[in-house]
Design brief:
Elements: E1 2-6, H1 18-21, E2 25-29, H2 34-41, E3 46-49, H3 56-61, E4 67-70, H4 80-85, E5 89-91, H5 98-114, H6 116-124, E6 148-152, H7 156-167, E7 171-175, E8 186-187, H8 190-196, E9 199-202, H9 216-219, E10 227-230, H10 239-247, E11 253-256, E12 276-278, H11 287-305
Parallel strand pairs: 1-2, 1-3, 3-4, 4-5, 6-7, 6-9, 7-8, 9-10, 10-11, 11-12
Helix pairs in contact: 5-7
């Protein structure tokens, strides 16, 4: 079997690809142009991607592909309908990043409420050495205990965030498309959740229904003191509307690990927006998380080769 692996997300030396090497003849691509992609994958049987788009044009150029694996839980880079028509199996990697993303949610939240980045930078600049008292606090900080966190999307990551929030003493409310059974938290509509929450955190897939679900109208429903956290997909947010809401004080802050177009463009309206904390899509990158991702992606392909595919997200026509 000829396998093409997009290793752009695994460029560091702490990851190896031995699990794929055991499955066939492997070649690697790293941020290819479309022409380079077609040349690399023209006669392959399987391709494993992260941000490379697998669409009708790709499938026309690479007709031997029978399997598309995604180095992610979200698979919006793949035209699953077109793959299904052609009998191409598409598999994702669910649940590999649950702990890492949930951890990052609270790292962002605590950075905002504790003003951690500002205080660390201030000490590094020597402000503490010039202080006349044992501490100084020019930036107001807050406790998260007792605050209400609204979780939009109650999959594995949403559940993990809810559990951690409870440990911090937060009040948890949930909004989700499909009401879960035996949910221990109060279930609200999306609009009602926005209105009562001190923190709104997004944990849903990017679909036609959720694209720009955070927009001028929905931002206006939030408290002026509220924080928005997005570690899911940048396309969930209308970035112009969020920048305007931050700069005008309609909400207090935003903490984001994703933007609509990545790498972030110099003209992104959120760059320089007031009280906007941004990390470069790194919630999923702890060493343990990346190793787990690679292992499960290789196991998906192994199961496909054996005729018993797992984590299939489409309905390939045979």
């Amino acid at each position: 079997m000829k396998i093409v692996v997009d290793n752009a997300a695994f460029s560091s030396e702490d990851i190896d690809f031995d699990d794929f090497k055991a499955l066939g003849e492997v070649s690697y691509i790293n941020e290819p142009t479309r022409e380079e992609l077609y040349a690399a994958a023209r006669d392959c049987d399987a391709i494993i991607v992260n941000k490379v788009k697998i669409d009708k044009e790709f499938l026309n150029a690479c007709p031997t592909v029978k399997y598309v694996g995604v180095f992610a839980t979200g698979y919006n880079v793949v035209d699953t309908d077109e793959c299904s028509k052609r009998g191409v199996t598409v598999c994702n990697v669910p649940d590999y990043s649950t702990n890492a993303v949930a951890q990052h949610v609270f790292a962002l939240m605590l950075s905002v409420y504790g003003q951690i980045p500002k205080y660390i930078a201030s000490v590094a600049e020597g402000d503490w050495t010039r202080s006349r008292t044992f501490c100084y606090f020019p930036w107001r900080t807050y406790e998260i205990a007792g605050k209400t966190i609204g979780i939009f999307g109650y999959g594995n990551i949403g559940r993990a965030v809810a559990k951690i929030a409870g440990a911090f003493g937060m009040n948890v409310v949930v909004s989700t498309r499909t009401p879960p059974e035996n949910c221990p938290y109060k279930l609200l509509s999306f609009e009602d959740m926005l209105g009562v929450s001190d923190v709104v955190t997004l944990h849903c897939p990017l679909t036609a229904a959720t694209e720009k679900i955070i927009n001028g109208r929905t931002l206006s429903l939030m408290k002026k003191s509220a924080i928005l956290i997005n570690t899911a997909r940048g396309g969930l947010v209308d970035e112009e509307a969020l920048a305007e809401a931050l700069n005008s004080g309609k909400i207090a802050a935003a903490a984001l690990d994703v933007v609509a177009e990545e790498p972030m463009k110099p003209d992104n309206p959120l760059l320089g927006a007031k009280n906007c904390y941004i990390t470069p899509h790194v919630a999923w990158t702890p060493l343990e998380t990346r190793r787990s991702l690679l292992k499960i992606a290789a196991e998906n392909l192994k199961k496909f080769i054996q005729g018993n595919p797992q984590n299939v997200v489409n309905n390939p026509q045979r």
